[in-house]
Each structure stands twice: as C-alpha cells, then as structure tokens.
C-alpha cells in the first residue's frame, strides 16, 4: 500500500510474502505472491524441518539402521534438506533482505544447500537402481565416500564460481526473496537441476521396469499392492521428482502448478518421515522395540521410588 500527499513524502509499505515456488521460477515471470502460497510454503517447511530432524535422530540412534548404507545416504539427504528449510524459514525474512551482504549470504547458502539436496536425491536414485538391478557389493565400500565428495563438493564449486563471477553481484534481492539474477539462475541453478531431474527420472523408470520384471517371481506375486504403491510413491518423494512441477507452471495453469510445487516440495521431509520411518518395515522393526524398551525403563523408574519408600516403611515398622 502507498499513501501520496502532494508536496510531502510518499510512505510505502507491503506485506512480506515469500513463496518456495519463487526459487524455481523457471519462466522468470514476475507477479504477486498469494497469501495461500506464502502460508503453504512456511507451514510446509516448518513441518518438514521437524520430520527431518526426527528422521535423523531415529536413523542415528538405532544401531541396526545406522549400519545400513541406505540409512547413511538418507541421513545426508535429511541434513541437507533440514538446513535448506531452516535457511528458507529464517533467511527469507525482511530483516535478512534489508542489508545487502546478509541478502547475498542467504541467497548463496540457499543456492548451495538446494543443490546438495538435489545431488543427494540423485545419489539415492543411483543407490536404489544399483541395489535393484546390478550386483552392488563389489564397490559398496567406496560408494558413500565418492558420493559424499561429489554431492557436497560439486555444489560448492558451482556456488564459488557464481560468487567470483561479477563480484558477488549474481546474488541480489528479487521481489520478496534474495536469489540469483536471471543469467546465473539458468546457468548455475536451473541447468544442474534439470540434469539431476533427468537422471532421477531415468533411474526411476529403470527401477519400475525392474519391479515389473520381478512380478514373475512367486514371492513378489504374494505381496499386496499396497506396499508396492507406497514404495513407488516413496521413490517419487525420495528422488525429488515433484520438482518437475516447476517446469509445468506456465500459462493459465501457472498458479495451480506453483501451489502443487510448494505443497509437495516443502512437505518432502514429512513424506520421507512417513515412508521411511513409519511405513517401512525395517525401520518399524527397529523403532518399535526401542519405544517399548523406553516405556519399560520409564515404568521401572516410576516403580523403584515406590518400592524404596515401602521398604523404608517396613524397616521402620520392624525397628
């Protein structure tokens, strides 16, 4: 809103609305961010952050899960996604965008952790493909180390190059967010995202083809459809395939796809927690005994003071 009085100053004010979909504005079209899109982004990121922290705690604290290669990869992905959502929640605020150095720092950090998150999704896709299609034990020992170097290192190189070129001016305040200018956005962010999504889509379809071929197996035929469907939906969430929605946000359907993009991507942490901590049998088999053990210990601690007091009364009576 603005208030104009002839011969006096103009006072301008606006509501700070930031949408997660603005970070993936493929067609670079400016426009107002709806209140619904903004609230969806913040609420979704808040829920995802809590779910990601819970997922990390569960897979780190349970020794049987921590031993698995899949859990270690999942933890790296969850750490990267958790930091991304935290930067969005804390950094995409008026106090961060007012000062240019802080604005550039937020944009660079968000750029880095968005890329690392997508890189770890690619690692997850490759790991699932190798486990499902080929013999994986021959190079499993070096897989995590190599993946860590690539997933954490390559985005760092991209961000450093973006910072060096044009003297950090590739990161600016655009509309309501601190983000990349048009040229660097396409070269340093959208191009890597497109390559990763194409790779993940390829891995996804190869895994699905492998699952279809496994239907001839009698053991597989006895499995219900529900676990298969949950597994496929879990793979879509884990591989970050919902990012494809950003490329469909054009024309009259732009707002719809932006909303879908914000919902599915800001809630990715919740989906990961549901599919890989609640629905996955391996995780449940580890979590449930831990919870029962914790309940038993709490019950024992509550009983011990009562028994001690009763023993004390008995001793006093006997005395």
TrEMBL record:
Q: Name one Pfam family in it.
A: 7tm_2
| GO CC field | membrane
Instruction: Provide a GO biological process annotation.
Output: cell surface receptor signaling pathway
The protein's UniProt keywords, in alphabetical order, are: Disulfide bond, Membrane, Transmembrane, Transmembrane helix
**Span of the secretion signal?**
none
Which stretches make up the G-protein coupled receptors family 2 profile domain?
37-280
- Tell me yes or no: is Transmembrane helix among this UniProt entry's keywords: yes
Q: Where on the tree of life does the source sit, at the highest rank?
A: Eukaryota
Question: Where in this chain does the record put each GAIN-B domain?
Answer: 1-30
InterPro entries xref list: ADGR_G7 (IPR053066), GAIN_B (IPR057244), GPCR_2-like_7TM (IPR017981), GPCR_2_secretin-like (IPR000832), GPCR_2_secretin-like_CS (IPR017983)
Locate the transmembrane regions by residue number. Answer: 39-61, 73-92, 112-136, 143-165, 185-209, 229-250, 256-278
Q: How does it sit in the membrane?
A: Multi-pass membrane protein
Molecular-function GO terms, alphabetical: G protein-coupled receptor activity
Q: Where in the cell is it found?
A: Membrane
The protein here is known as: Adhesion G-protein coupled receptor G2-like
Provenance organism: Octopus sinensis
